[in-house]
Design goal:
InterPro entries: 4pyrrol_Mease, 4pyrrol_Methylase_sf, 4pyrrole_Mease_sub1, 4pyrrole_Mease_sub2, Cbl_synth_CobM/CibF, Siro_Cobalamin_biosynth, Uropor_MeTrfase_CS. This protein is an alpha/beta fold and 249 residues long. Helices cover 29% and strands 20% of the residues. The strands form 2 sheets. A 5-stranded parallel beta sheet has the order 3-2-4-1-5, sandwiched between helices. The chain has a 5-stranded mixed beta sheet with strand order 6-7-10-8-9, sandwiched between helices. Helix 3 crosses helix 4. The relative contact order is 0.15.
Length: 249
C-alpha cells in the first residue's frame, strides 16, 4: 500500500495529470489541503472513500492518519495544491513516513507560477532577455529565509523573479527588487491563477503596490518581475531556426 502525494494544481480542477486522476479515483482514503484544493477533485474519489480536510489538523495528526491508513492496507491520495516540489510541506511528512517505515510516492502537479505565466500569456525565459527563473518567497515570522536568499541578493542576477506567498508584503518586494531591476521594470501579480476568480495585474515595479492594494490582493498570489514580461525585438530561439541542422544520424 502507498501514500500518494499528489500535486492538485493551481486551482482549476482539470489542471491535474492523468496519473493523478487515476490515483485519486482508486484511493479509498483522501486527505486534502482545505480550500486550496478544488472541490471537484473530491468528487472523483471512489464511492465510500474517507475524505479528510487537513486544514485544521497538525502535522502529527496528519501523519498519524497516513500511517493508520497504511497499517490498514489502504492507499491514500494526499492532495496538495500546486506541485509538491515547492512550498508544499511534503518534506516533513515524508521524513516522518520514512521513520515509520511507510512507503510513498509523489505525483507532480502544475505549479502556481506556470499557471500565472499562462494567465499573462508570457514565456518566462526569452532568448537574449532572461534564461533563468528564480523561485522564492519573502521572510515571515514563521519561516525565515536562509542567509543569502533575501530578495536583494537574489535580485542581483537580473533573472526573471517569481515570488510566492508574498502579496501581503508587496511593499517590501517592490522596495528590495527595485534596487536591481529598476522601478520601470515590468511586473505582474496573478491571484487565484486558473480559477474563476482569477485576477491579473500588469504594470511596473513603480505601479505594483498601488495596483495590488486597489485590487485587495493579500494572498494566494504570485508576483512576477522581469524584462521578459514586456520583451520585444528579441532573437528567435535557435531551436526552430532554419539554419539549424535537422539531419538524423
Amino acid at each position: 500500500m502507498t501514500i500518494h502525494f499528489i500535486g492538485a494544481g493551481p486551482g482549476a480542477a482539470d489542471l491535474i495529470t492523468l496519473r493523478a486522476a487515476r490515483v485519486i479515483a482508486a484511493s479509498p482514503v483522501c486527505l486534502y489541503a482545505g480550500s486550496l484544493v478544488p472541490a471537484e477533485l473530491l468528487d472523483t474519489c471512489p464511492e465510500g472513500a474517507e475524505v479528510v480536510d487537513t486544514a485544521r489538523m497538525s502535522l502529527d495528526q496528519i501523519v498519524d492518519k497516513l500511517v493508520e491508513a497504511d497499517r490498514a492496507g489502504l492507499d491514500v491520495a494526499r492532495l496538495h495544491s500546486g506541485d509538491p516540489s515547492i512550498y508544499s510541506a511534503v518534506a516533513e511528512q515524508v521524513r516522518r513516513l520514512e521513520a515509520a517505515g511507510v512507503g510513498y510516492d509523489i505525483v507532480p502537479g502544475v505549479p502556481a507560477f506556470t499557471a500565472a505565466a499562462a494567465a499573462l500569456g508570457r514565456e518566462l525565459t526569452v532568448p537574449g532577455v532572461s534564461q533563468s527563473i528564480v523561485l522564492t518567497r519573502v521572510s515571515t515570522l514563521s519561516t525565515a529565509m536562509p542567509p543569502g536568499e533575501d530578495l536583494r541578493s537574489l535580485g542581483r542576477s537580473g533573472a526573471t523573479m517569481v515570488v510566492h506567498l508574498g502579496a501581503h508584503r508587496i511593499e517590501q518586494i517592490v522596495e528590495e527588487l527595485s534596487e536591481s531591476y529598476g522601478s520601470d521594470c515590468p511586473a505582474a501579480v496573478v491571484a487565484f491563477a486558473s480559477r474563476p476568480d482569477e485576477v491579473v495585474l500588469r504594470g511596473t515595479l513603480a505601479t505594483l503596490v498601488e495596483q495590488v492594494h486597489a485590487a485587495g490582493i493579500t494572498k494566494t498570489a504570485v508576483v512576477i518581475v522581469g524584462r521578459v514580461l514586456a520583451a520585444e525585438g528579441f532573437p528567435d530561439s535557435y531551436l526552430y531556426s532554419a539554419t539549424r541542422s535537422r539531419a538524423t544520424h
